[in-house]
Specification:
The structure is a single chain. With 126 residues, the chain is an alpha+beta fold. It has one domain: 60s Ribosomal Protein L30, Chain: A. The chain is built from two helices and seven strands. Strands 1, 2, 3, 4, 5, 6 and 7 form a seven-stranded mixed sheet that branches. Strand 2 and strand 3 form a beta hairpin. Helix 1 packs parallel to helix 2. The longest helix is centred in the middle third of the chain and has 18 residues.
Amino acid sequence: MRISIEVPGFEHDNPIPAACRVGPLLMTSAISGKELFTGELPGGLERQCENMWSTVRKVLEAAGASTENVVKVNVWMKDRSQRVVMNKGWLEMFPDEHSRPARHTFPAPELPGNMQVQCEVTAVLE
């Protein structure tokens, strides 16, 4: 049975949920650095990354998961050379270097407007 996961204030432009769960598998839709409730996109990469990682936590929580359930994160960045900025929140979420999910960071110069970063998360729940 498929279950849509919604998070108050987290809205997509398209009719899709924040995440979807089937059995123990949880996959998010795209999570950007937009402000919850307003949908505003801050100008700087640092703030967008903070918002993105915060929203990831909220989506996981709404699904009954935590960062411990995450197995893979895909990240798209307008400028991949700025990964050090994105890594700050990554290291806060996953501080144990021996227990981090897999990650792939893709170049995405086509992200719309001033969007600098977005991600999707795959998790397995018990």
